[in-house]
Design brief:
The chain is an all-alpha fold. The protein has ten helices and no strands. α5 runs parallel beside α8. The longest helix is centred in the middle third of the chain and has 23 residues. The protein is elongated and about 55 Å long.
Amino acid sequence: MGATVHSGKPARERLLDAAHELMGTIGLARATTKEIARAAHCSEAALYKHFASKEDLFVRVLAERLPKLSPLLTALTAEPGGRPLEENLTEIARQAALFYAESFPIAASLYAEPQLKRRHDEAMRELGTGPHLPVEGLDRYLRAERAAGRLRPDADTFAAASLLLGACAQRAFAYDAAAPGDRPPVDDFARRLARTLLTGLLAAPGAGTSEVSRPER
């Protein structure tokens, strides 16, 4: 642990580094604030100067140490109709797959302790965050593209968002115990997922992008 958390960094950065490593190795449930502070070479009191709670620290780890998903969705929603749809969905799928591959092992330990998970869920609601937000963010982006005329008028954007992100989460879960190298490569996985999703969303063949190629039958 000491090899990856450098004492020369500011305390907040050391705490984020320590929390990220401990949550990913021993799990969120067992990574206490005391353990995190000790690994960061600072006091538990110092931890609470920077973070209101362990849940707050967890949220900051997700935002600052894991692949960025929410900023990408926000940026795309603000300017729909720009880059090709396939390109956008591929990048969303890629970032989501990377995000879930890192965040799933961190949060999975909560499911072994139902009472702790309930407290954690309550804290997430109080902080205004939670695992449902990426689905809502992707739904907003797809609705913006639908309003711009790049998706079928009857396209079910919430179902599409759930399918894409659910597949990315499943990639992290289903292949966690597989042999090394068996997990689908992230770039190929994201490209195929985006293309498959587009077959049910496009207003017409090729709408929204000149580069979409229909999946081989």
